[in-house]
């Protein structure tokens, strides 16, 4: 072999060696995925059904790889009742419609010069907005159309929200985003992306759940904005078809408690869409990492549900579903202190408190890792009445 060919041969061998090593590591995570046990909390057979759906979904009307009909098929397979479609700059989406038993609700994701703004619940067409225009123009147009605006993946590295003034005006905030989880994993290909890809070969939902590793910045930013007004916490599927729609829908969704929206939904698609979007905008919807279990029996009590406020010194009560001890824990951010019983939160000062339930979920290897499970919108903490 000539001296010129020898380095090339060594390079090829090195590349193949790395590929085989990566395949071996992925195979290990695939093997471990076969032992991942879901759900962590079993559904109650006699519980009232919650209305379930996916928010922030893309189709072939923009950059998704599935038609609306394909999305509806995947949603039905995952047990969802509705899907909020948010194709990029789709200012004239089709009207709400029932497809294969799933309600498809029109929405939009507007590209602005400051980032992406999702919206749903419009009562009139959005007018006077062009892609990549000023953010304040998009916010005003959505409000004029009667819709609810949401900061889409607001702290994502690729498309963060960069305009401070409008950030304070928009009521919705994607606290958890499947697309953001994926992009975070891309920055840690060996420790996060490779385990998820390997697990997906055996258990696609487990692969998606391994991507769900929250970072502190979204919560910090959310609490900054929520101190001044009521905010909506949403989980954005941001589904494009890769990973598969059904896998994303099985991993996380938005759910409406029976006391907020008792089923069944109206068979009139327009009326049903209004029911769902009003419930989503009420602040009483729940983000659920559904792979970990159903939220039957969960409740957060001790605040005014109409204003979503409670006074300093009040105690919030977290009603947990039946579960195996040690598999669930309540986590608190902001102006609240978890009591020793693990189910009461004392409100310690004016501001805002975010209360979530986390589950001890299957991890990358054969152990378990703590992951978010139930995520309600925050409660504003207001000064108590003056003393006598």
Looking at the structure, what is the overall shape? Answer: globular
Order of helices and strands: HEHEEEEHEHEHHHHEHEHEEEEEEEEEE
**Largest sheet features:** 15 strands, mixed
Quaternary structure annotation? single chain
The overall pLDDT average reads 91
| Unreliable stretches | 14-22
Helix/sheet category? alpha+beta
Q: How many distinct beta strands?
A: 19
CA-atom Rg in angstroms: 22 Å
Helix fraction by DSSP (H/I, runs of at least 4): 25-40%
Question: What report would you give on this structure?
Answer:
The chain has a domain at 51-296: TIM Barrel, CATH 3.20.20.140. The chain is 29% helix and 27% strand. The protein contains 10 helices and 19 strands. A hairpin with a 2-residue loop joins strand 4 (102-112) and strand 5. Helix 1 (5-33) crosses helix 6 (189-200) and helix 6 (189-200) packs antiparallel against helix 7 (204-211).
Q: Brief overview, please?
A:
This is PHP domain-containing protein. With 388 residues, the chain is α+β, with helices and mostly antiparallel strands.
What are the SSEs and their pairings?
Blueprint (H helix, E strand, L loop, with lengths): L4 H29 L17 E7 L10 H10 L4 E4 L11 E3 L2 E11 L2 E6 L14 H10 L3 E4 L12 H4 L4 E6 H9 L2 H12 L3 H8 L4 H11 L5 E5 L8 H7 L1 E4 L12 H13 L4 E3 L10 E3 L7 E3 L3 E5 L8 E7 L1 E3 L5 E4 L3 E12 L5 E9 L2 E4 L6
Parallel strand pairs: 1-2, 2-4, 6-7, 7-8, 12-19
Antiparallel strand pairs: 1-9, 3-4, 4-5, 5-6, 9-10, 10-18, 11-13, 13-16, 14-17, 15-16, 17-18, 17-19
What are the defining features of this structure?
four-stranded antiparallel β-sheet; 388 residues; globular; alpha+beta; 5'-3' DNA exonuclease activity; TIM Barrel; single chain; 10 helices; 5'-3' RNA exonuclease activity
């Amino acid at each position: 072999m000539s001296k010129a060919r020898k380095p090339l041969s060594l390079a090829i061998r090195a590349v193949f060696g790395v590929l085989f090593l990566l395949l071996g590591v992925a195979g290990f995570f695939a093997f471990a995925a076969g032992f991942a046990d879901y759900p962590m909390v079993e559904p109650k057979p006699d519980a009232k059904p919650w209305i379930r759906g996916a928010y922030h979904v893309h189709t072939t009307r923009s950059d998704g790889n599935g038609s609306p009909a394909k999305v509806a098929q995947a949603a039905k397979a995952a047990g969802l009742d509705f899907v909020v479609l948010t194709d990029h700059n789709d200012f004239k989406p089709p009207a709400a419609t029932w497809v294969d038993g799933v309600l498809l609700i029109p929405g939009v994701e507007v590209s602005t010069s400051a980032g992406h703004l999702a919206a749903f619940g419009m009562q009139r067409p959005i007018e006077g907005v062009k892609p990549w225009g000023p953010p304040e123009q998009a916010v005003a147009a959505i409000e004029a159309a009667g819709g609810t605006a949401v900061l889409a993946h607001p702290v994502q590295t690729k498309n963060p929200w960069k305009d401070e003034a409008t950030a304070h005006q928009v009521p919705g905030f994607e606290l958890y985003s499947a697309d953001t989880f994926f992009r975070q994993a891309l920055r840690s290909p060996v420790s996060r992306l490779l385990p998820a890809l390997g697990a997906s070969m055996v258990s696609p939902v487990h692969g998606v759940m391994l991507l769900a590793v929250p970072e502190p910045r979204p919560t910090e930013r959310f609490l900054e904005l929520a101190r001044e007004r009521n905010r909506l916490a949403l989980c954005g599927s941001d589904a494009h078809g890769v990973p598969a729609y059904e896998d994303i829908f099985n991993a996380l969704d938005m759910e409406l408690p029976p006391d907020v929206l008792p089923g069944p939904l109206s068979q009139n698609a327009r009326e049903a869409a209004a029911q769902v979007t009003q419930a989503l905008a009420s602040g009483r919807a729940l983000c659920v990492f559904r792979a970990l279990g159903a939220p039957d029996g969960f409740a957060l009590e001790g605040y005014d549900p109409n204003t979503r406020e409670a006074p300093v010194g009040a105690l919030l009560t977290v009603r947990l579903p039946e579960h195996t001890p040690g598999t669930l824990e309540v986590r608190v951010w902001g102006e609240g202190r978890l009591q020793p019983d693990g189910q009461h939160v004392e409100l310690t000062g004016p501001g805002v408190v975010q209360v979530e339930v986390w589950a001890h979920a299957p991890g990358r290897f054969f152990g378990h890792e703590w992951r978010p499970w139930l995520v309600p919108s925050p409660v504003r903490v207001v000064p108590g009445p003056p003393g006598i």
